[in-house]
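name: query_chain
kind: protein
chains: 1
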Amino acid sequence: MTGRIGCQGCRDGAELDFTFTMAFQPILDLAESRVWGYEALVRGTGGESAASILGRVTPETVYRFDQAARVKAIELAGRLFPADDATRLSINFMPNAVYEPAACIRSSLEAARKAGFAHDRIMFEFTENEKFRDTAHVSRIVSEYRRQGFLTALDDFGAGFAGLSLLANFQPDLIKIDMDLLRGIDTDQRRQVIVAGIIGIAGSLGIAVIAEGVETAAELDTLRGLGATLFQGYHFAKPRLEALPPVTGFPAGGYDHALVA
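structure:
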């Protein structure tokens, strides 16, 4: 997803010749025994993978797709999420698909208004796996989104191009540690040292950490011991198409096992 066009294109763009929807996966706050939020994940309307949908996005349709994906996620969240003022919605976006931050966020703000979904409950994730052509531009996006009241998160931290320099340049609200760093962490001291360092650095910067891709109770126990409190992964729930999945896998003692979306 590369290239930029003017604000008119950011609003309009080329028409999409395919349909898509969203699946939702919970992000859990074990310290508070609650569902912190849900990540919206692109899927085909028949449950096809994100890769199969993203593979159909062209340079001519990337802007339309980026805008449509945000609106779709917000509309579904407005219909599915609990009637509270706390459960957050996490949306992925490509910074290189944004021409002008203030203009290209308008459709998201309007969708949130129509859905009755407070925009300060929305978090935008950008991934370290995408090599940014213009770091100053990405910094402007993050600054503008935070000024508008949105949360921002750096996804796949530890797997991509820039690593710690992104934290120095962009200062997101949260980082999501890449699942490859967490896989088998219960038996790998090197991973434990690295992840403990990331959690410590993030805490010193006032950045929250989400441990993403947790698949086993042993991984969960180790991460809790390292200080992590926010979690996401198949150990708790797999994504569910246009629905909020039930949550399982809470550790025994001190947590509400009745937490069901």
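note: Strands lie at 21-29, 34-43, 88-92, 122-127, 151-157, 174-177, 208-212, 230-232, 240-241.
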